[in-house]
């Protein structure tokens, strides 16, 4: 994406009228600036259910170009008093909150990488679906 934007800036600069090209002795000039939008995305893939251990494992691919980093959240139905769900998100361990949304990881700076994920549940009263989301900081 950066190549396309920079290419468009170079093309724009090349098509400016000749008067915009100042001679070295002149004091007038122009500047070019651009803003790269913050883009973040998650892609969950290859999850496998282990019915014996009551767990699910797989991989999540993270992409975020935010210089300040990002946070990964897990959304799920509210949990009952006897339900416990533990999450290992690339070495960040969290117990899912009863309310239905849990912060599971924080990353500083931009990142593109694959993270192993394992969800372990105990005492579930009904099926549980967990959705991951990403929020730039």
Describe the overall structure.
This protein is mainly beta and 137 residues long. It has a single domain (40-136), classed as Sandwich (Jelly Rolls). 9% of the residues lie in helices and 45% in strands. A 5-stranded antiparallel sheet has the order 1-2-7-4-5, with no helix packed on it. The protein has a 3-stranded antiparallel sheet with strand order 6-3-8, with no helix packed on it. β4 and β5 (92-95) form a beta hairpin. The longest helix is centred in the first third of the chain and has 13 residues, at 2-14. The chain is elongated. Mean pLDDT is 84; it is low at 1-20.
Q: What sequence of helices (H) and strands (E) makes up the elements?
A: HEEEEEEEE
- Tally the helices: what do you get? 1
Q: Which topology does CATH recognise? A: Jelly Rolls
Mean pLDDT: 84
Structural class: mainly beta
Main sheet specs = 5 strands, antiparallel
> Low-confidence stretches at least 5 residues in length (pLDDT < 50)?
1-20
* Fraction of residues in helix: under 10%
What would you report as the Rg, rounded to the nearest angstrom? 23 Å
The CATH class is Mainly Beta
Shape: elongated
Strand content: over 45%
Strand order within the widest sheet?
1-2-7-4-5
